[in-house]
């Protein structure tokens, strides 16, 4: 049991910060990393990102292992003694545990090549990985292999699941602003209400075929008109999340929905903006094989999991730049779900998480 890493996780858990605002978390991590004497330490990477590089000084691959800095804007209701001290925010996805696992690798130098420990900001919004990749400082750290894990409630505690190919869906959020014209509620025919269009849109989204690419759309928010009884509405906003198993399938879904909206706008003015865009995560066969070999070598149970994961993962942006593998570490069959107010990362996962990354690193660079 890594008591020091558990204590570190609990400290992180008490002070959660949302996407893009992880300044205190980044400073905490950077201070801890400096004590391990990395060959280089980069801060302010893609925002609040922190990267520590440990160089063997021997020719070989660069292996990046990634964790996430950000928490969620959800009030915590776990009841643990180290619960969030920041009202309205909580580490309810386990990023505090992922960071603790990565800190268990700090100070390790591979036999060949380099180890880069990346603590990435803004995973929950899909902005962090792209910001890291766009930062000029990342060029000197660019990996040949990249690995990450995510804890997974519903899988047996400590079990591991990995597979080549799609590991998590691509997704994007659409904010659809609809403008018509208000009218007196007694004479709605003199105005132009967005209600009929929204009714059609809701029905169309629900009827979207899943198909081979498992495309889907979820209506997440709908607001129309003012909260009165005397005004027929003229304005509305809808938030819709689109998902598909690949980036190309998501592009097709967006194109088709754009066309449907244009054909059914009924004279309304419609403005669409894109938010929280996540690439699909694609597990490279070689990288996934290293993960599976590590699981087998450590005697960890193979987790029961159906790939790909429907929720999106910002790690997907790295798929086009390195041989990547995202694997899942079981948080327990009956554990509270991710993003649930009662969720808390299981401390028992720190030891197998550290062991998995140590074994993967050894196999890639040994």
Question: How would you explain this protein's 3D organization?
Answer:
- There is one protein chain.
- This protein has 366 residues and is of the alpha+beta class.
- The protein has two domains: 252 residues, Zn peptidases (Aminopeptidase), CATH 3.40.630; 109 residues, 2-Layer Sandwich (Alpha-Beta Plaits), CATH 3.30.70.
- The chain contains eight helices and 15 strands.
- Strands 1-2-4-3-5-15-6 form a seven-stranded mixed sheet, with helices on both faces.
- Helix 3 crosses helix 8.
- The radius of gyration is 23 Å and the shape is elongated.
- The model has no long low-confidence stretch (mean pLDDT 96).
Summarize the structure.
The chain has 366 residues and is α+β, with helices and mostly antiparallel strands. The chain is built from eight helices and 15 strands.
* Number of DSSP helical runs: 8
User: Averaging pLDDT over every residue, what do you get?
Assistant: 96
> What's the main sheet like?
7 strands, mixed
CATH topology tier name of the largest domain: Aminopeptidase
**How many separate domains make up the residues?**
2
Shape assignment? elongated
Order of helices and strands: HHEEEHEHEEEEEHEEEHEEHEH
Report the helical percentage.
Answer: 25-40%
Low-confidence stretches: none
Q: Structural class given helices, strands, pairing?
A: alpha+beta
Number of strands: 15
Give the radius of gyration: 23 Å
Strand fraction equals 25-35%
The CATH class of the largest domain: Alpha Beta
